[in-house]
Amino acid sequence: MMxxxxxxxxxxxxxxxxxxxxxxxxxxxxxxxxxLREFCxxxxxxxxxxxxxxxxxxxxxxxxASMTHVDSFIKELLSSDAMKDFNRARVYLDKNYKSQEQxxxxxCCYFIHESLKNIQQFDFKAKKFRKLVGKEVCSDALPNTAxxxxxxxxxxxxxxxxxxxxxxxRTRWALADCAFDLVNIHLFHDASNLVAWEKSPSVYSGTxxxxxxxxLDRITDQRxxxxxxxxxxxxxxxxxxxxxxxxxxxxxxxxTVRSTDTNEVDKLIFxxxxxxxxxxxxxxxxxxxxxxxxxxxxxxxxxLLEFDRELSVFKERLLELDISFPPSYPYSEDSxxxxxxxxxxxxxxxxxxxxxxxxxxxxxxxxxxxKSITYDNIGPNVCMGDHKPVYLYFRLNTGAGKPNxxxxxxxxxx
Length: 414
Known about the structure:
Elements: E1 12-20, H1 22-26, H2 28-46, E2 50-56, H3 63-66, H4 70-79, E3 88-93, E4 107-112, E5 119-123, E6 128-131, E7 135-138, E8 149-152, E9 167-175, E10 178-186, H5 193-198, H6 203-219, E11 229-234, H7 241-248, E12 252-258, E13 265-272, E14 279-284, E15 287-290, H8 294-297, E16 351-355, H9 357-360, E17 374-377, E18 390-396
């Protein structure tokens, strides 16, 4: 057992990771090894006892061609040196793309260290916790799997996208006398930069708000005991497009270019008033070409955080630690361009780890541990695909030393 790897009054180390892995299956030769190396390095750095990895776009965008790469990716992950002391695992992969009415392309991977004895997983059908034994990979019968809840959002939530794969998966865990939910989520993207620019907040943020509200209502309804929850995935949260463009192009004039056939707006060109009318920003449906990418990287893009507002609607229900990493999307998929953003969308913090107030209470930092809580991205200097994975590491205060704590009630050790 690694030094310090035991369940103490300070609690077990927990590592939560969210990763949109679509790019990995489009270019497995170049990206998968780098991705696995960086992920495993994060595990080895923090030495958690429990790892939860939530993936989106399993199999990639061209899933019919790329889904065959998923099994080898999971096999390499399970057999890696970093995971060798994790003797129990549960892996759930939604790979059945032939079932379009249910397919979400979500993947949930949970790893339990050999030194962590007192952990159970919830059976939603039997409504009770069960002990974990061994390693299991489940992909063929997810709708009938008792240890998770999976739902795809109704098609009318996002009618622009014919085959949307967006939805969520929930699992429930009990560690010592503390129980909590882990929710993997993938919300709707911005289909057009031009539509996103039209009003503030954009129509797309309203669609995401509706879907996230649906998930929160579902995981806090009366069917099961209400517990603290961590909800992490690709929320597709975007900066307020209209306001961020007005800020970036405050001294520029705008030219509108329309289609000769339909008279619809094809592109917007923002030019400086002087300086030879230099183009500052060119905006098209799938183009966001801004003159100075450094603004999204300098000081981790903190100047733009004021335009990150989609979470504010849920401030009574969802909390987040302070962000101190650059926007997580859209990075170049060129393996030699680890820090470069693509000119397709305005960079944004799409990948997040959010939690209920009761779940945040479990992250109280012991006074003698300087780095006991870390909220950051993985692989900042290398190509991890178009999304940088985001992780949260903390010690879970499990109520150790309080023998009278109610079973599966979370209590904080003072």
